[in-house]
Write a structure and sequence with these properties.
Elements lengths: L19 E2 L4 E3 L5 E4 L6 E6 L2 E5 L4 E5 L4 E7 L1 E2 L11 E6 L2 E6 L4 E3 L9 E4 L2 E5 L5 E5 L3 E2 L4 E6 L6 E6 L4 E5 L4 E6 L8 E3 L5 E5 L8 E5 L20 E2 L6 E2 L16 E2 L6 E2 L15
Antiparallel strand pairs: 1-2, 2-3, 4-5, 5-6, 6-7, 8-9, 9-10, 10-11, 12-13, 13-14, 14-15, 16-17, 17-18, 18-19, 20-21, 21-22, 23-24, 25-26
Length: 292
C-alpha cells in the first residue's frame, strides 16, 4: 500500500523507513503528518537511518533524533552515515577539516584528537585504523581513543561490533573491546586473527586454540556488557556561562573566582537564537548573529 499519506495503515514497526524527508528539511510520518520541522534551522537534511538523520545548517553536519532534537551538534565537515547498524555501538565518526574524531550519541566527543586525515584512516563502526610507516597498525576506538600499542594485524566483525581481534607484533592474538580492555587475553596459541570469530550478538566467541590440539576450538559464551557513556546530569548553561574544568563550577566571568582558572576558548551561545556553537564559529550558522 501507499505510505506517507492519510490512507496508510502501516505502523513504524512494520517498515524500515517511517519518516520521510520532503527535501526541505521537514519530516512526515507514514500518515503524512508533519512531525519534524527543520526548515527554519537547516539547509540540508538526509533521510533517517534508524533513529538518526544527518542535518546541516549553513556550515557543519550534525544528527537529529526522531523527535527532531539535535543530539550531535553541527560541528563536523562530515559524519559517517551509511548504515543504521553503526549507531548500535552508541558512537559515530565525525570529521573536522577532513580529520577523524568520534562522539557518542549524546554529542560528547570521546576521541577529539582530529590528527588522522580521512584518506589515511579506515573506519568500521566504532573502530578506526591507520597503517604506520613501519607497516604496523595504529588502532583507534571510539571510547578509548588511540591505543598506545601498535599491532601487526586486525580483524573487524561488522560495523555494529564492539569487539575487534588484534595481533600484537610478538604474534600473540586476542580480542579487545571499545574501552580498550582485553575481552579474550592475548595468546601466541591463537596464531592468526582469522582463528577467532564472534557471533552477531557478541554472546559467543569461537577460538581455535592450537595448544589444545589440532582442530580444537574453545567456545566463550556470555554477555559483552560494555555500555556507551550516558550523561548522568544535564547542565543547562545560560548565555555567557561556562563550566570550570578545574572545579566543575558554573561561571559567568572570564576566570574562575574559586581557583583562578581562565575561561577556555570553548562553545558559545548565540545571543540571537540561543544556539550553542563551537569555538571555531565566529558567526551563528543558524541565524548569522556575530559571536559576542
Amino acid at each position: 500500500q501507499k505510505a506517507f499519506c492519510p490512507e496508510c495503515t502501516l505502523t513504524r514497526d512494520e517498515v524500515s523507513q517511517w519518516l520521510m524527508d520532503d527535501g526541505k528539511c521537514n519530516y512526515y510520518d507514514l500518515q503524512g503528518n508533519l512531525v519534524i520541522t527543520g526548515a527554519a534551522n537547516f539547509t540540508y537534511s538526509n533521510r533517517f537511518s534508524g533513529d538518526y538523520a544527518r542535518v546541516k545548517p549553513n556550515v557543519g553536519y550534525g544528527l537529529i533524533d526522531t523527535t527532531g532534537k539535535l543530539v550531535v551538534r553541527c560541528a563536523y565537515s562530515d559524519i559517517d552515515y551509511y548504515s543504521d547498524h553503526m549507531f548500535a555501538t552508541g558512537y559515530v565518526a565525525g570529521y573536522r577539516d577532513g580529520q577523524l574524531g568520534f562522539c557518542d550519541l549524546n554529542g560528547v566527543e570521546t576521541y577529539s584528537d582530529f590528527k588522522y586525515a580521512s584518506n589515511v584512516v579506515s573506519v568500521t563502526g566504532a573502530f578506526g585504523h591507520v597503517k604506520d610507516l613501519d607497516g604496523s597498525y595504529i588502532i583507534i576506538t571510539a571510547a578509548a581513543g588511540e591505543l598506545a600499542e601498535r599491532f601487526k594485524d586486525y580483524s573487524y566483525f561488522n560495523d555494529q561490533s564492539r569487539l575487534v581481534v588484534l595481533q600484537k607484533n610478538d604474534g600473540s592474538v586476542g580480542v579487545i573491546g571499545l574501552a580498550g580492555e582485553e575481552v579474550i587475553p592475548f595468546s601466541a596459541d591463537y596464531r592468526y586473527t582469522s582463528n577467532i570469530s564472534v557471533s552477531n550478538d557478541e554472546s559467543t566467541i569461537l577460538v581455535y586454540d592450537r595448544s589444545k590440539g589440532s582442530g580444537v576450538y574453545v567456545v566463550y559464551t556470555g554477555s559483552y556488557d560494555f555500555e556507551p557513556p550516558v550523561a548522568e546530569e544535564e547542565i543547562v548553561l545560560q548565555p555567557g556561562e561556562w563550566i570550570c574544568p578545574a572545579c566543575g563550577g558554573v561561571r559567568n566571568t572570564n576566570f574562575c573566582m574559586e581557583d583562578g582558572t581562565m575561561k577556555p576558548a570553548t562553545d558559545w551561545f548565540c545571543p540571537g537564537c540561543g544556539t550553542q556553537n563551537i569555538s571555531d564559529f565566529n558567526f551563528c550558522p543558524y541565524c548569522g548573529t556575530k559571536r559576542p
